[in-house]
Structures are given as structure tokens and as C-alpha cells.
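Moderator note: this is an archived Q&A kept for reference. The question asked for a predicted structure of one protein chain; the sequence and the answer are reproduced below.
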Amino acid sequence: MANQVTFQGNPLNLEGNLVKLGDKALDFSVVNVDLKKRSLVDYAGKVKVITTFPSIDTPVCDLQVREFNKRAAGLSKDVVIIGISKDLPFAQKRFCGAHGISGVEILSDYKSADFSIKYGLHIKELALTARSVIIVDKNDKVKYVQLVKEMTQSPNFDEVFAELKKMV
């Protein structure tokens, strides 16, 4: 049976294989808000907190990005928080500018869904990225995975940062 999430209780199918604890993180190709290509190797030697969401222009996604941005202020320089969605980079840039988002590097997977499919987070029916948090260590090993099963709910932020604290 394929991995699924729900939207208001209705099941949606995820394409790709959901990344698992202990996996080697796969490289990916996305773009930043200035349309510059970014990939996993751009964050070599850092602990990577990858937070994914369906659309920056929805209340839960807005909350998710703002909460990660707020908590980023107290983190070590060895940690980078990366937000990935399929929103257009122009919308992402507008949002970040309007809300002072500087602690989360927002990236777009709009071109090919490369990240979303490789990490098993691409929602087939909506062509969006499922809500999740993945922590990848300095050696590119997956150390934490939280797939939020209901799209209208936010991640468990306290759990994410408790896990991160164990690593840095």
C-alpha cells in the first residue's frame, strides 16, 4: 500500500518512497527565491532541518514557516533550516520579504518535483509537497522523519527541536 496523507480527512497518495531513518539523504535539484539552483551538496557539513509544506499562501504553511524562522534564531551556525514547497519562487520571495523570514532558506521544487518525488512526499492528486520535517546530519544521514498525516495540521515543533537538540 502506498504512503498516504489526508486533506480534511480525504486520502491522498504520495509518489516515491518515503525517506526513512538511517537512509543516505539523496541529492536533489531545486531553486531558491532568486532562481538559483540549490542541492543537498550546498549544505555540506551542516545539520539540515528540511521542512516541507504544500503552499506558503495557506494559514498552516504560513504558521509553519514563521515558527521555524522564530526558532532558528537560537540555533548553532552548524544548523540550517530549509523550507521546500512547489510554490513559485516569486511567491516565496514575496512572502519572505513581507514577513521578515531570514532564518529559513526557502526553496522551490516547482520545476520537476525532484525533491518531492525522491523523498516520497509528492502528492499525486494535487501535485503538491506533503507537510513533513526531515533532519539530516552533517554526514547526510537521515536522523529524523515526521510526516504530518493530515495536511491541515502543523508539525510537532517541540518534537523536532528536541530531536535536533540531541544532535548539536
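Archived answer notes: The domain at 4-167 is CATH 3.40.30.10 (Glutaredoxin).
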